[in-house]
Amino acid sequence: MKKTLLSIVFAISCLACSNAQKKEFSKTTFEKKLTTLDNSETTFKEIIKNHKGKVVVMEIWASWCSDCVKAMPQFKELQSKYTDASYVFISMDKSYDKWLAGIDRYELKGDHYWVTDGMKGEFGKSIDLDWIPRYIIIDKDGKIATYRAVETDFEEMSATIKKLL
What we know:
The protein is α/β, with parallel strands linked by helices. Helix content is 43%, strand content 20%. Strands 5-4-3-6-7 form a five-stranded mixed sheet. A two-stranded antiparallel sheet has the order 1-2. The N and C termini lie far apart (50 Å). The model is unreliable at 4-19 (pLDDT under 50).
């Protein structure tokens, strides 16, 4: 009985640690290159640096992702409520053309970047990406306020943004 109880406690502890909210990005994440709308490259570090002094709400998404599309009305509502925040979209689309078409189709307003190696590539691994849509909120100093939010966390995200602004 004790062994079973200890095993359960250990499993819960491991699960809790794996879902922990990180407070800063790794050096590896900062070095990752993403594609810009004009088909050039920039580093994740540059993206964060360009928004220093602003609260950043980041959505990791793809045009083929039905959960992403389903969550867009709530995300757009968040955008209209918190206009002083910056919005950054990072796409996991499979091609440059599909990514651009998705931005137009869903009328996404904000800064846009594309990860060329997909969800399971180097960038996805560096941010512990296991599901999309995924949201990350960054404070005005460039520190992570929310590391792992999903489409069901909009109420919590709203409270975090309000507190940071």
